[in-house]
Design brief:
This protein is an alpha/beta fold and 827 residues long. Strands 9-13-12-11-10-16-15-14 form an 8-stranded mixed beta sheet. Helix 15 links the parallel strand 7 and strand 8 (339-341). Residues 1-10, 120-128, 131-159, 179-206, 423-434 and 444-472 have low confidence and may be disordered.
């Protein structure tokens, strides 16, 4: 029995070698079988655990095993190491050794040439190396003729990082500007003294022929329906939010075609303090006088009729509802000599501020009626958020059919499609929808009879200026004019704050009464739909927010009941702003809350039935639970706009002004925190979508990385680069898609696959390479009879000759790319 004596394990005989060997082999076979069934990640974790337990001699055994069976590739160090390290190594060679090294390979020859040139004084840079001129020892053979490379490539090889950065900046500076992008020379723009002189010959009869012009940002929700709302005869341009100021001027010039506009509307994102015109350009008081921003507005003002001719620029952003916004309008008017106007009203939770009174409007009608059909505009402004969600699906279906059309044309077609499908006839034909509408109207009538009537959303901050007063002095004194009847206007804004807060609290109470209360009652009656832990995750934070805002609402109501000109509201908001940690808990848990809802919906049939019964009913205002949870994130923008409006109509001597400023800073700081969280989530999702559609794409998700623009180009091949640009022949070899991020350029091949019996096609992408922006060189190729709209992109290892379909795309792409490279090098 001693032969079966064991140690540490009842299954491992200590002295019986045959049984020990047999059992060992069985265990090896069993572990091998498990290893075959494991995933790659599990296998890696297993090997990692085993290697941690190995001694040095055992690890050396593994290393020797790999060395015998997998020979390490022998590579040229000059092609692997950074260029400046290779240069440093070659700098220790004598001139004779450099001559010998130059004969080894082309990479070594380039390095030895760079070592030679860097060792010379500047005045001797034109002296050729001895191994090229043949002046060295006779034992060294002359190399074969080197293939001709562009000067840009020869200068690039082996440069130090600082020199390479300077080279990239130089390549950006020599690119042609504006509409001369296709030519071989860069022509200067009109000087400032000629901007207004271009149209000097216009007589009074030509004023009637000047069109109205509207710019619409693609960042506006459901912008397609906004484009469809534009009146006939009004020139409209849809622009991408990611382009540059220079590109935007180019689009305006091309659309106007040498004419002046009688008026110009700008419909972009923004608030009562600034205009979010383009990516990286939020136009406000702080940056209005920056050189590139000032130059942009001066040139834009030259495209509009002067103030004496009745010209004006209309911002569809409520700049007239705050002091900072009116200061922006005043400075722009003084800067350009053109009258700028904007809405003065605030409509919380929608875009209906564009239908309120406009600052200094003297044309007998609101600017919105100049550019848009008001019926369609009101439909769009009332249902913006819902229309945007619907259009996301519509765009995916229709854009492949319209991809060859201009953005403004395709947008108008999609907008018309949406308006047609929203016709009242289609709604009334649907009996189920009609019944829901009837029930909703009855419910609203009951609510109206039980609640007090509050004044309308859009309050009047109208400031009428006579035609003779539309001058610089009137604009400078704009604040004094606006503060007439300030007590009445201030009261209206505070009432709007109270009314919007009441509606907000009602939406939070819906979550409590419709969802939380029944789920909690079911849990208490032993017929639980959700566990106590899940209920805690879903509703604990939102109920704390409800308690906080209920207290804030009560304080506002009590203050407004005894309201007078001397009463203050700033201290109440300050107290509310000091308790915003409640919101922080909600926003930190917000992704977890949404995932919990989806998981419980999928795993628990009773909860899925519960949501079907309660979601999108009259009681929930036709909203679902996730949609109701959106309200806290949107409320802070409304707070900020309303507080700015209260401060605008608060006299300087009022003690409430200081408290309002402090409360605005609190809310503004917290809104920045929410915006940053939202931006990070959106960027992460966007990068994940891009990574998913590009086959073989590396991980794109990095901190502060975001997509700027995607450009489809044709990759060309030059048959002979030794002849001049005008005589070179090119052939189309591939289709490429260039994904421009703020720190890198991703190059991918683009293919198209068709499905039998289907008209639409599917686009596929294959990853090729990526280049950091600060190492990317750009070179323009002038148009010739053989090539149009072409340019060269040169990276550290690869070069691409690309061409766009039309000249506009080339200009916009190079302008955005140039701006992105400069921004990345400034960081």
């Amino acid at each position: 029995m001693e032969s079966f004596h064991t140690r540490f394990s009842a299954w491992t005989p200590l002295s019986n070698k045959s049984l020990n060997t047999q059992l060992f082999q069985e265990r090896v076979a069993l572990i091998s079988h498990w290893f075959d069934l494991w995933t790659n990640k599990q296998r890696q974790e297993f090997l990692f655990t085993i290697f941690l337990r190995c001694t040095k001699s055992q690890l050396r055994f593994v290393q020797d095993w790999f060395s015998e069976r997998m020979q390490v590739a022998k590579v040229d160090f000059s092609t692997v190491l950074p260029r400046f390290i290779s240069l440093y190594i070659f700098s220790f060679l004598s001139p004779k050794d450099l001559c010998a090294a130059a004969q080894v390979s082309w990479p070594w020859k380039f390095l030895t040439e760079q070592v030679y040139y860097l060792s010379l004084p500047k005045e001797l840079f034109k002296v050729r190396p001895p191994w090229v001129s043949g002046t060295c020892c006779s034992s060294v053979l002359k190399p074969r003729r080197q293939p001709r490379l562009s000067q840009t490539v020869r200068e690039r090889v082996g440069l130090h990082e600082a020199l390479e950065k300077q080279l990239v900046l130089t390549s950006l500076e020599i690119l042609p500007k504006r509409s001369n992008i296709s030519g071989s020379h860069s022509y200067p723009l009109l000087s400032k003294k000629y901007w207004h002189g271009v149209h000097k010959n216009d007589d009074s009869s030509s004023y009637a022929l000047r069109p109205h012009f509207i710019l619409i940002s693609s960042r506006i929700p459901a912008y397609e329906m906004l484009v469809e709302s534009v009146k006939a005869g009004v020139v409209s341009v849809v622009y991408e939010h990611s382009i540059t100021l220079e590109s935007l001027l180019y689009l305006i010039e091309k659309a106007l075609d040498g004419r002046k506009a009688q008026s110009m509307g700008i419909f972009s994102d923004g608030d009562s303090r600034e205009i979010n015109l383009l990516q990286g350009y939020k136009i406000g008081v702080k940056n209005l006088l920056r050189p590139e921003v000032r130059d942009f507005w001066e040139k834009l003002g030259s495209y509009v009729a002067t103030e004496e001719e009745g010209g004006h620029v209309d911002f569809f952003v409520p700049l007239g509802a705050s002091e900072a916004g009116t200061e922006v309008l005043s400075q722009l008017s003084q800067l350009t000599g053109t009258f700028f106007t904007a809405p003065t009203g605030i409509a919380t939770g929608s875009y209906q501020h564009i239908l309120s009174d406009w600052l200094g409007c003297q044309w007998g009608k609101a600017p919105s009626s100049i550019y848009f059909c008001e019926a369609k505009l009101q439909t769009w402004s009332s249902f913006t958020d819902f229309l945007e969600e619907t259009l996301k699906t519509v765009r995916k279906q229709l854009y492949p059919l319209f991809k060859e059309l201009q953005k403004s044309i395709s947008g108008r077609m999609i907008g018309q499609f949406m308006f047609d499908t929203m016709g009242m006839t289609n709604i009334l034909n649907n009996q189920e929808t009609a019944q829901a509408l009837a029930d909703g109207l009855m419910e609203l009538s009951k609510d109206d009879s039980e609640t007090s009537v509050v004044e309308d959303n859009s309050w009047d901050t109208k400031s009428r200026l006579s035609k003779n007063d539309l001058n610089v002095e009137a604009l400078i004194n704009l604040e004094r004019i606006l503060q007439k009847d300030s007590a009445e206007k201030r009261t209206r804004v505070v009432r709007e704050l109270l009314q919007s807060e009441r509606k907000y609290v009602q939406m939070l109470e819906i979550v409590r009464d419709v969802y939380f209360a029944p789920l909690k009652a079911a849990l208490s009656s032993n017929r639980a739909i959700l566990s106590a832990a899940n209920i805690q995750i879903l509703f604990s934070d939102i109920l704390q927010i409800l308690s906080l805002n209920r207290q804030f609402l009560d304080n506002l109501r009590d203050r407004l009941q005894e309201w007078g000109p001397a009463h203050c509201v700033g201290e109440i908001v300050m107290k509310f702003g000091s308790q915003l940690n409640t919101y922080t808990n909600f926003f930190n848990n917000y992704p977890v809350i949404l995932k919990t809802i989806e998981k419980c919906r999928e795993m628990i049939p009773a909860f899925r039935t519960f949501l079907k019964r309660h979601d999108k009913t009259i009681v929930t205002k036709m909203l679902s639970l996730p949609e109701l949870l959106l309200y806290p994130s949107r409320r802070f923008e409304e707070y900020l706009n309303l507080l700015y409006a209260v401060r605008l109509h608060t006299p300087a001597e009022n003690v409430d002004r200081g408290d309002l400023t402090t409360a605005i800073d609190q809310i503004k700081k917290y809104k920045g925190y929410i915006d940053q969280m939202k931006q990070n989530i959106n960027m992460k999702d966007h990068l994940s979508d891009i990574q998913r559609i590009i086959w073989g794409c590396p991980t794109l998700s990095e901190v502060n990385r975001y997509l700027i623009r995607v450009q489809d180009v044709a990759q060309l091949h030059c048959c002979d680069e030794e002849i001049s640009f005008s005589l070179r022949l090119y052939e189309h070899i591939h289709d490429l898609s260039l994904f421009l991020f703020n720190d890198a350029l991703l190059v991918s091949s683009r293919g198209t696959s068709h499905t039998p019996f289907e008209r639409t096609s599917k686009t596929t992408y294959q990853f090729i390479t990526s280049v950091v922006l600060h190492r990317l060189l750009i070179e323009n190729i002038p148009d010739s009879k053989y090539v149009k709209n072409a340019f060269i992109l040169q990276g550290p290892k690869y070069k691409w000759i690309c061409a766009t379909e039309v000249e506009d795309e080339k200009f916009l792409w190079l302008s955005v790319l140039r701006n992105a490279i400069k921004s990345s090098m400034e960081k």
